[in-house]
Amino acid sequence: KLACAGGWSPLDTDRYQWLQVDLGSRKQVVSIVTQGRYSSSDWTSKYRLLYSDTQKNWRPYLQDGNIWTFEGNVNSEGVVRHELQHAILARYIRFIPLDWSREGRIGVRLELYGCSYWADVISFDGQGVISYRFRSKKMKIVKDVISLKFRTTARDGVLLHGEGQQGDYISLELRRARLQLSINLGSNQYGSIQGHTSVISGSLLDDDHWHSVVIERYRRNVNFTLDHHTQQFRTNGEFDHLDLDYEISFGGLPVSAKPSSGGRENFVGCMEGITYNGDNITNLVRRKKVDTSSFRNLTFSCTESNSSPVFFNSTSFLRLPGQSDSDTLSVSLSFRTWNPNGLLMFTALADGWVEVGLTEGKVTVYMNVTQRKNTRIDISSGSGLNDGQWHSVHLNALENYAMLTVDGDEASTVRTAIPIQIQTGGTYYFGGYFMHTNTRSSQRSFQGCMQMIHIDDHLVDLRAVEQGHIGTFENVSLDMCAIIDRCVPNHCEHTGRCSQTWDTFSCNCSGTGYTGATCHTSMYQQSCEEYKHQGKNSGSYWIDPDGSGSIAPFRVNCDMTEDNVWTTLKNNLSPQTSVTSADQEGKAVLQITYNVTDEQVLSVTGSAESCEQYVAYACRMSRLLNTPDGVPFTWWVGRANERHSYWGGSGPGIQKCSCGIEHNCTDPKHYCNCDADLKEDAGLLVYKDHLPVRQVVVGDTSRAGSEAKVTIGPLKCLGDRNYWNAASFTSPASYLHFPSFRGETSTDISFYFKTSSTHGVFLENLGTTDFLHIELRGSVILFSFDVGSERVELSVRSPVPLNNDQWHRVEAEKNIKEAVLQLNGQYREFRPSPPQGHTRLEFYSELYVGASSGQRGFLGCMRALKINGATFDLEERAKVTPGVNPGCQGHCSSYGMHCRNGGKCVEQYNGYSCDCSLTAYDGPYCTDDVGGYFETGTLVRYDFLPEVGPFALREVNSLSGVSVPSEANLTQEELVFSFSTSSTPSILVYISSRTQDYLAVVLRHNGTLQVRYSLGGLIEPYTIDVDHRNMANGQPHSVNITRNLREIRLQLDHYPVSTYTLPETSDTQFNLVKSIFLGKVFETGQIDPIIIERYNTPGFVGCLSRVQFNSVAPLKAALRSGLSTPVSTHGILVPSNCGASPLTISPMASASDPWHIEAAGAVFPFNEDKASDGGVDRNSAIIGGIISMVIFTVLCIMVFVIRHMFRHKGSYHTNEAKGAESADCADAAIIVNDPAFTETIDESKKEWFI
């Protein structure tokens, strides 16, 4: 007793000591308190508890699916109290020391706390059945509460059963030592809806220990609780009442049961505390108020089992004596285990040995007889015997044969001949862990339980073994079977398949879409948006929006060809499906099914920025919506089975079609084309809370000649708000807090972050006993949490700094098997979880994102925070939290590399876009070629406009790092383009100047390429002839010309780069670049006559694409009419990408580009002092300007006259909301302005025409 002198301290301090407490009768123990022995150095630091009702068949106290080890004392005076997670119900308690004082011996003072317990116990012998008759013949029950406790060594038997004439029933029975609850509240008369529902719980329930069952039902909702583990389910069918007739029976099937219910065994064992809807059945039995006539001998006590189990671990063996020098060997036993391999029995013969073991779940017998030159005999029987069930083995060897029988199946007995007569050695080993002195056994030690051990047909008295009268043993637990089913409950999530050995379990996740030790982590990204930012292209992908949540992954189509990302869900309805087979009311119903569930659809639409679905109704004599005030002929059913009577292009509450909104219906008296029996009505449904379309009901197809065809397009949703849900932490003391959540056995956390700080706490959850923490420390991410009394820490070090203002992803997971921390999807640390303490975490404080407990909080941006599959809305919480701002900038630092070919990354609130304006490419990532087909005589001209005054261009760095002076003269340039043609000769690109300098790329008569440079200082232009191949072969070719001072680098297609050098007498400046010509030259001033005479006629015929001179893309400017650039086109130019292959040479970066035009609108400078002699160019410019002004004036006059001739005036009055200025009418204005609008539009419009 605590606080008293003395205490218990055994004479021997070893692992075989125990202290047993007799409570006098069964008690309910809820806590234990320990203290060391008084005034000594003796205490117990770790211990276990066993309990029993009979001093036999002890059961260890279990918690979290393990034999629980209690933390004891660290000195002799301290008091340590443990509240039991589950109360112990027993008479005898054993205290088993596992570790003790290093300074002394085992010592303890202990107290047990609890309360008295009493219950009526009834023993069932397999014949008797309790029949509880109802007060009325038929019971129609909407609510049930049934509870009982049972104890048995049988693995099959009916615990309760009730049924009704209408087919309703409820049944609870043991099947292979598992408990199965079956309920049927009724099936419909056509049999299309079956009400049968069956749920299985528990395992190893034939262990002769008490197990409690509670069944709670309200209508179709059922709670099924077995030993504190509750399964919640909903019965099948559509009925709520359980209709039972006459009675409900306990212990077996009643005599009145239907013949179809036969073939099931009655229960053998004990029950207590049986209650049915408030009636204490066991008490009624004792008072003889219930029919028990089927019992041969009704007893109110629980008889003891004759079997005494033996528990073996990997270091156990049991040595028992038998007859020696006998010519007959007979051994039998029962065993249960999870391991597929293990030694059951070994005995040495006078000449040889016999071994019985498990090999891959089969019982195998090896007999080795040394007299006959090591004659070896192998026999085996059974399969899958490592299933945790009891299995019996009987080996008989006599005279000249041996027999092996498994599970008493005589028909499957295996016989084999023995060449000589055996002679027993007299010593038998069970379990396998012993000194292999004269043996050659290769079997591993047995882990599991044995009972009913017979040697020479005599049952071994294990109590005599325990008392030391016969045999010896080591590390064996007698009168106990500590087998644990580690797969019940199943810790493998998402339908993962659990398998186990004695020590652990493993999960097979194949085919589930999840991975990890417990199949917790999804293998797929959460959305198309996330795939896009991994650099993926459009295609079909699996997505999992809730990650580790309950929604299974599903396949969608991702459209990433535009700037936005669309997620598409297809349905089963073919376009233009004809409407036929109307019902009796004249309605034809079209069911639309999708390849996903309602939950999966909601997970997409819920996080999308917007959704749309195209619908079309093609008609002939088949009206659609009738009038805005009338009953619609046709409607559609969307999410939540809601009925809607608006069509594509319209909105809720507006019973119109698109043409009714836009006032362009074929018949102005109607608001749908089909209401006038004409044409088609089509448009987009855009209210995502109503989508997708599940059903279309067409109501006007019965008239003569009626015909209708319906098209329901796929559901398309834009973006993923959860992926970009972000918050910015602007102060080390700022944080967001969320309500506390109950942690699960498996907990996963993932988020993105970017920061310029080296330290900070990302998030933390402080509980009364449990703790969770993720932190940044320099280049290390730290993840720490508590499991029981042990703290686990994982860390991942990044090879690059994490405070580089780029996005990094953190994924942390802990489960019953392991803890994993992952950074950026590639740096990972794994650590096995401690075996104890995996009770679901109870967090009593709030979740802090950022600083908490006075620590330095995270400083930077965080987004896409998910815990256990649920997204935390950082933006909403940041709106009401000081020091934290919603949203985050800086996506380009992480994803800017996806902008290709010199495209510039532009920050957006919820992402980024690529600015391709300074490149020769288009598309979301600047990867789409821009090109055109040139007919004969077609040319494109791009002019660099002069600027009066100081030069506008700053000094910029070249590709090679050499600086370019701030004036307009070029010492370097880069020209890139692709072409394909079959005609020669021709000019591909010609770049002129206000001097005689030029650069030309031409095709000669033989199809070879020539590059001509004239920079002054030379009598003739410097030419580069590429004579090794014909480029006019109709195939696409790419050209890259880069010059830096005198060095010219040329690359054709994917051939190696060739280097050329301008002569020393040549200038190095390309002076006053004026124009770029593509296809043909049409220029005033002095031009190299060779260019005109040899190559300019008839002009280039073929395709040009990707044309870029430094940052100028002349062909793209010509083909994009929206660009205000000084470009002109003569002749026919047809857009085409020319079939060019992807370019592998990056264009010059804008930072190195002398042609880079700043946002302020600076243009290329022109210094008049450097114009050519004689003023020819200046005069030409003046004349051209005058002609341009005249043309402009004439055009303005023509536009004014035309406008005056066709003008009309009017006033338009309506209740338009904001947004009307961009809409065509009031209906459209309200729809544009308020997507949630649900009221009918006021139609009062007035118009005057003058």
List the topology elements.
Layout: E1 19-35, E2 44-52, E3 59-60, E4 62-63, E5 66-67, E6 70-71, E7 80-100, E8 109-116, E9 121-125, E10 130-141, E11 143-151, E12 157-163, E13 169-175, E14 178-184, E15 196-201, E16 211-218, E17 221-226, E18 229-234, E19 242-250, E20 268-276, E21 279-280, H1 281-286, E22 310-321, E23 328-336, E24 342-349, E25 352-359, E26 362-369, E27 375-381, E28 391-398, E29 401-406, E30 414-417, E31 424-430, E32 448-455, E33 458-459, H2 462-466, E34 472-478, E35 497-500, E36 505-508, E37 514-515, E38 521-522, H3 528-532, E39 539-543, E40 554-559, E41 566-569, E42 577-578, E43 588-591, H4 598-607, E44 610-620, E45 635-637, E46 643-644, H5 658-662, E47 680-685, E48 695-698, E49 707-718, E50 726-729, E51 735-738, E52 747-755, E53 759-766, E54 771-777, E55 780-787, E56 790-797, E57 808-814, E58 818-823, E59 827-832, E60 847-850, E61 860-867, E62 870-871, H6 874-879, E63 884-886, H7 892-895, E64 904-908, E65 911-915, E66 921-922, E67 928-929, E68 931-934, E69 939-943, E70 956-957, E71 963-964, E72 972-981, E73 986-993, ...
Antiparallel strand pairs: 1-7, 1-8, 2-3, 2-6, 2-7, 4-5, 9-20, 10-19, 11-16, 11-20, 12-13, 12-19, 13-14, 14-15, 16-17, 17-18, 20-21, 22-31, 22-32, 22-34, 23-28, 23-32, 24-25, 24-31, 25-26, 26-27, 28-29, 29-30, 32-33, 35-36, 37-38, 39-40, 40-41, 41-49, 42-49, 43-48, 44-47, 44-49, 45-46, 45-48, ...
